[in-house]
Write a structure and sequence with these properties.
Structural class: mainly alpha
Order of helices and strands: HHHHHHHHHEEH
Distance between the termini: 28 Å
Number of helices: 10
Strand content: under 5%
Number of strands: 2
Strand order of the largest sheet: 1-2
Shape: globular
Largest sheet: 2 strands, antiparallel
């Protein structure tokens, strides 16, 4: 499932996706990254719950099949067609309360609830489309869809959540070093967390900062 995780995150956090959400919502790019990172574990947990609940699983499979048909090869075109009201309904279905979720994310990230709500309403249709594509929802039976997506979510929610936190960390590092010069002769290292920014950003830097973010 690692490849599925990597593929999902690459799409959700790609520069193309983030820049088009910024255009669609007016929310700053770094804030978009943080909002998605904060909300992603809850959205995926909700998707897993929809799959495992007998009262919602058939409807969820149908929704995945419907969203799987959306063309995500051109993000600019995709986000122009996104229905924010439909996106808010998706968030509500996945988390139980779209308004409460937006408020919690806003507090966590430090943005307005309106900004959080706009980004969540924009990203949720893309998340459904990507999950649908990964489960081959357009060409599979309802049972096959549920089996595929259930297997993916049950095995990967934890790793995706960690990756989402790492994406938050990347954004935090970018904010920290913006406008600061780096020199090859002198390394800039945080001794406590072994964050070395002299050679750019790598996985060690990300994991070092995760320790600062996650209490």
């Amino acid at each position: 499932m690692a490849n599925n995780t990597e593929s999902l995150l690459k799409e959700l956090f790609s520069a193309d996706t983030l820049s088009n959400i910024t255009k669609a919502t007016g929310v700053d790019g770094d804030d978009v990254t943080k909002i998605i990172s904060s909300a992603l574990p809850a959205l995926l947990k909700g998707a897993s719950g929809q799959t495992n609940d007998k009262s919602t699983r058939e409807g969820f499979a149908s929704a995945l099949a419907s969203h799987a048909g959306a063309d995500t090869s051109d993000m600019a075109s995709f986000f122009k067609k996104v229905d924010l009201e439909d996106g808010a309904k998706i968030v509500a279905h996945l988390t139980g309360d779209a308004d409460k979720t937006a408020a919690e994310v806003a507090r966590d990230v430090g943005v307005t609830k309106g900004a959080a709500s706009s980004v969540l309403s924009s990203i949720s249709p893309l998340l459904m489309s990507l999950l649908g594509k990964q489960s081959n929802a357009q060409s599979a039976s309802s049972n096959d869809i549920l089996s595929s997506i259930g297997s993916f979510l049950s095995g990967d929610v934890g790793s995706i959540a960690k990756a989402a936190i790492a994406a938050y960390a990347v954004s935090a590092i970018k904010n920290t070093v913006t406008g600061k010069k780096k020199t090859a002769s002198k390394k800039k290292t945080d001794k406590k967390d072994d964050i070395d920014l002299s050679d750019g950003l790598d996985l060690g830097d990300v994991m070092g900062l995760v320790g600062k973010i996650v209490k």
